[in-house]
Write a structure and sequence with these properties.
The protein contains three helices and five strands, in the order βαβααβββ. By secondary structure, the protein is α+β, with helices and mostly antiparallel strands. The chain has a single domain (2-79), classed as Ubiquitin-like (UB roll). It has a five-stranded mixed sheet.
């Protein structure tokens, strides 16, 4: 399955990339699985996207939970929590 990844704000800055198209292994079926798969890249990926890191996720432009299932051709986005004032 091929999907588009997008990274925003401080996550984009730390990773040094704003978007990627990736081919996922067959066992990656949810947004949470995508995050865990990216963490396996190690180094800054593991730091920025770790389970302990405050990261929001969206699937096809809609905020989502880690158990949201993904489909071929979809978009998964990662960004830090946003505060207003």
């Amino acid at each position: 399955m091929k999907i588009q990844l997008r990274f925003f704000a401080s996550i984009r800055e730390k990773l040094g990339v704003s978007e990627q198209t990736v081919e996922l292994p067959q066992e990656v079926t949810s947004v949470g699985d995508v995050r865990a798969w990216l963490v396996q890249r190690g180094d800054v990926w593991a730091e920025v996207l770790s389970a302990d890191a405050a990261v929001r996720m969206a699937y096809d432009h809609v905020m989502c939970e880690p158990d949201t299932l993904i489909a071929d051709g979809s978009e998964v986005a990662f960004f830090p929590p946003v505060t207003g004032g």
